Structure formats: C-alpha cells, structure tokens
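Need tokens for this chain, all 231 residues.
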Amino acid sequence: MRRAIRLLSAAESIVDEAHRHNVKVTIHSRGSTSTRAAAKARVDLIYHADLATQADLDIIAKAGMPIAPVLTSPWIGVAHDGAGRGLGDRVRDRLRAQLDTSFQMIRNARDRGISVMSGSDTGNASAFSHGRWHGKEAELFVNEVGMPAMEAIVANTSRNAWLMGLEDEVGVIATGKFADIGIWNSDPLADITVLQRPSEISTIIKDGRIIDSGTGGFRQLSVEPPVPVRR
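Here are the structure tokens for all 231 residues:
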C-alpha cells in the first residue's frame, strides 16, 4: 500500500509539473497498479494497460484519458517469430496470452467509451522499423477487437494528431488543415488490410501537392511481412 501511495504521489507531481509547462505525459504501463495510479494522476495517455481490471478501466473512463494498446509488436512475435529473432515457444506463448488479454481489455475499454489510439512500438528490438507493419494495428483493431473500420482509421489519424499537438493542422480532411492525404484504389472501410498494400495507393498529396508515385512506396525492410489476404 505504501509503495502504491508513493507511486501515485510521484506520478501526480510529474504530471502537474509537465502540464504547468504545457507538455503532455504518457506512461508505459502493463500492470494494474501502475495503470490505476496513472489514471488517478491524470496522465494524458496510457500505453498498453494490458492487465487493467474492470475497476481500473472505470477510473480511466472517469478521468477521460485514452489508451494505446500497441498490439502489432507482440503480434509479430507470435506470428513471425519476433521478425526472425528466434523466439522460443515459451516466449511466443506468453506473447499470445498477452495479446488475448489486451484484446479483451480494449473491448472492455470501448464498452466504457474510452478512446483507443494507435501505437507502433517502432524501434523496439523485437518489432520493426518504419514500413509496412504500421497498417497492421488497424487490422488488429478491426478483426480481433471488433472495432469498426472507420474508428480504426481515426485511431491512426486524428486521435494521434491530438497526441502530437497537431490537431489544428492534420488528422482530418477539413478546411484550414494541411492537405496531407493518401488515396487508395480500394475502400479501407470494406477491407482494412488495404492500408498494408502500397501497390493500391492511388495518390499521395503532401501540403496540397501531388507526390510523384514513382518515388513513393514503403521502405524495404530486412524482414517483410506476408501480403495480407483479401477477405
């Protein structure tokens, strides 16, 4: 109990000081105790929150902060052996259990109206660098969590724009915003996996200017994911 009180007190001090300087605070939290303390301290975003209980989620919902579960990194470990890093069976089994717990936690969070944001874990040693994997998070939201495709897209765009303090500039197509737009030949609302297929990108617009498609595409990775199967 004393440790939990000290944790909460320290978190509150950090958040208060950061907000005094107009800086957002995020926390990497997997356990129940740290997640609950983060919510009570009113951080701006909780990453992961895998083991958040129903009671923890009630506190998060009341405080009004979003969760970014970051599902793609453990999914890579389960489905692709940690991007070729030779994970053993015990590690893969643990990651599979972690994923199942996270999927249910996010379902419970959405039932309470908690906003869900997309994260990538880019740069994580067991995950990936910039590239094609980023579209996987939206697919996991839709196919594993049960999120509508538009909500998954919003989690990757306008909600993340807010986190970066760019909500007045990017994240939606609207008058007064930067014209940064990606156009696909297929409808991601009908098939969210299209966001992982650069071959179906029709047009990329940056600052209102059409980018030469001959110089576009995703950076090639040392280990490429399989092409998603159309559903």
